[in-house]
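Hello forum,

I keep getting stuck at the same step: I have a sequence, I want structure tokens, and every attempt I make locally crashes halfway through. Rather than fight my setup again tonight, could one of you with a working pipeline run this one for me? It's a single chain of 601 residues.
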Amino acid sequence: MTARDYGSYYRSIPHCALREHVIWLSNCVMLNIIKVPSTQWNFSLIIFYLPATNMVADRSSIEGHGLESSAVKDNLPVDLETAAIKAEGELLDHGADTELHRSLGTRHLTMIALGSAIGMGMWLGTGTSLVKGGPASLFIGFLISSSMVWAVSQSIGEMAVMYPVPSAFVQWSTIFISPAAGFALGWGYWFSYWITIANELQAVVTILRYWTDALPTSAWISIFWVVIILINVWAVRFFAEVEVFSSTVKFGWMLIAIVALLVVTAGGAPQGDAIGFRYWNAQAFNNGFKGFISVVPTCVFAMAGSENAALVATEVANPRRSVPKAISSIWLRLGVFFILGSLMITLTVDPKDPDLFGGSGSNASPFVIAFKNAGLPVMAHLTNAIIFVSVISTGSVSGYGGSRMLMGMAHVKMNHKIFGKADSMGRPWAGYIATIGIGGALAYLNVSNTGVEVFTWLSNLVSLLTLFGWGMICLSHLRFRYAWKVQSRHEAHLPWKTWAYPYATWWALIWCIGLIIVTFYLSVWPLNEEMSPKNFFANYISVIAVVAIWIGAQIWYRCPLWIDASTIDLDEFRRFYGNHSEEESVPARKSLVRKLKVIFE
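Reply #2:
Ran it on my machine without issues. Output:
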């Protein structure tokens, strides 16, 4: 029985002289249901009795919750259980209850959030962008995409603290925008997760061929399909520790690579002289403005995965403490690993390097090319190994994300209820089997030439889902804040709020919409290619698919395009916090070493 059920029951009790006593007796039964220790009964019954005499049942109350008369005056939504925990200092959930275990901490959330974004897009995709737009376009593209990630993370942080639910932004979209929006986003994202698993398994084969051709493609796919399964079959804590390790390795190597490339550009490598800004001076922008706008979406895709922080927040022990800490340090990681990393690439790799055009797999990675040209073959091999770790990490995170996406959709009745279940260790087996099973099986399409063609078209379906997802997160945040204001709630009572609202939210949303329009332009008039229907559908079919799903869901659910903000249930799936559990000591002054450690912890 949920808090909403209790609220509906209370409002159904007729108004009479004995009404408050009936409610008090009902609370006695509720205390037994929620298993309040007997030592707390006397206190709890008093707490429950006091607001019972001031119950309100009008429309101004929160759906599923009673309000004290003083709370009504101040527009403060205070329900029975919240009143109890104010004195007890406990942390209480209403709609946020799930079968997942809340066993993760701040470091897990932080490392998975940004660590999962360092993948093939960063290691390999930067080479394509360098060719298309030149060094200045690549660097500016990462500045823009990094600012978008930071802005989106602010929206995620505010909503993840209050609504830490399994499918996160899917459920947020369902609550604050419309069920059709949540349906389109949820199924689109789940599709992208198992496509990503298949992509990463194929990428593993390409990476390993840098060293050996000892085994056929199908054998390598089978081996690392099992590896991804093994990472996910244990308790979520094991998965999280594996991801923390792989993210630490990726961050650490990126830091080493940045320093090494700085030495290379200064002329300290075994081969070559000082480079400086030679490639910037030669031609900072390739292909003019069209080249620049073709690079920015690629930079965004290189940072896809940072939104996974919203999914992980569900299994964090205390989102109110962990999420803000993770969000507060994200700018540092963005600056060091993505912006500085992209800058070093533009300084050390010639956009006209033949390996960027003719290389395959890791051989086309600008990091590998830079080290090989500098006479550092060992660094090139180590970079390839890091790319391998990144690929496995991205595959395992996709298995995790896909299973949670299915679970969250089951909770809002957009999926079969079996996907909403988890075992005693918090593992949603149905979601794991569906996501990792389909993704792994699909990877075998790459064994044949016909299968490769089919797989390419399936991969094209997810090309713009990152922009769609980020945009929906920002739109959900705007709608959430608007509903909060319309229902006369005070910002001071948000568990955590970002100082950058609404400017950061609008910044990211406008860029998402703009880049989707830019991609349409480039799909119709591609860079250095002829116009063709095949090229258009290859680059824009994901938008067409999402719009079609959205329209279909709109018809099925018969819901308005926008949910009326005054009717949004702001307490559905909400997590409530007590006082004492959130108290934090005054932070001690950090040494320089501890300040640097924030990058990795």
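The two ends are 39 Å apart (CA to CA). If your local run keeps crashing, start a new thread with the error log.
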